[in-house]
Write a structure and sequence with these properties.
elongated, about 290 residues, 4-stranded mixed β-sheet, mainly beta, 8-stranded antiparallel beta barrel
């Protein structure tokens, strides 16, 4: 199967008549759509995905500055999915004829209801269903994946979620990259120096809503005896119930740390011929919280 994305066509004549600007392969046609918000403004960050009758993705891409998406596909039956941050997804279908143009026209995306926020009060991280993982480069070579196996955290949810507070403590010695020699080295004075600095701690009192399910959580991270300001790019996943009916909430978050910011010197490691992990580390958190008992 083949598909060609033409989402950056911005000339008016091309938008109104995509066939005028496209040389079609044999037995192919054009599929187009434009995403608008409830006040008829283009949704410039809309994403489009076209699947065939078997559910296989044929082509995908983003909208042009006018919210439009135009693609060539083999003649056939298709499903089109349109998504954008903060909007409910749209699904439509179209039949594309050889040398023909199937247009779904203007699709109005509806603003999605934000996920229910956790109730006011004290919550704690449920470690069984949470993880703190990281990815680093092996000095420009393969990626190293690891995690911290032992951690705890508490969240105090305020009446205004922006005024909530969070405190997370990570056991530095629980670092695990699945290679004992490397993990022992990471625990040593060359890196985390866990004998002197047994924990990593993050404390935040600044929650910023970025729209939809996106949040920024800014706080102080203490690592290797140094404290720096760090912002987590978080996606709030909502509230649900556990197997025994207990309420719980979940989110995912990422950030990137630079080891030199915490006096874990990359240059020093290279000068000594030590090549373990690169100078920056991506952190991925997948967290569930439950009411504090």
């Amino acid at each position: 199967m083949f598909g060609r994305w033409l989402g950056n066509r911005t000339n008016r004549a091309q938008r109104t008549n995509p066939l005028a600007a496209v040389t079609l392969p044999p037995s192919a046609g054009v599929l187009s759509c434009r995403a608008l918000d409830p006040v008829n403004e283009p949704v410039k960050d809309a994403e489009f995905a076209v699947s065939d009758a078997m559910g296989r993705k044929v082509v995908s891409g983003g909208a042009d500055p006018f919210g439009s998406f135009v693609t060539t596909v083999p003649a056939g039956e298709y499903r089109l999915a349109v998504s954008a941050e903060g909007y409910a997804p749209f699904h439509g279908s179209a039949s594309v004829a050889a040398s023909g143009h199937a247009s779904l026209g203007d699709v109005m995306l509806q603003v999605a209801s934000p996920p229910q926020l956790p109730a006011r009060g004290d919550w704690e991280i449920e470690p069984t269903h949470s993880s703190i993982a990281f990815t680093a480069r092996h000095i420009g070579l393969a990626r190293i994946h690891g995690r911290f196996n032992t951690f705890a955290g508490a969240l105090r949810v305020a009446d205004r979620i922006e005024q909530s507070a969070m405190h997370v403590v990570i056991d530095a010695s629980s670092i695990d990259t699945n290679v004992k020699m490397r993990d022992d080295h990471l625990r040593s004075g060359d890196f985390l120096d866990v004998d002197r600095f047994p924990t990593l701690e993050f404390y935040s009192e600044r929650f910023m809503h970025r729209g939809g399910s996106r949040w920024g959580i800014t706080g102080a991270l203490s690592l290797h005896g140094v404290t720096r300001t760090v912002t987590l790019d978080a996606e709030y996943l909502g509230v649900g119930n556990g197997m025994e009916g207990e309420p719980r909430a979940a989110c995912r978050a990422t950030t990137e740390l630079h080891r030199d910011d915490f006096t874990v010197s990359w240059q020093t490691m290279l000068a000594r011929g030590i090549a373990v992990v690169g100078s920056s580390v991506k952190i991925d958190l997948d967290v569930q919280i439950v009411p504090k008992g």
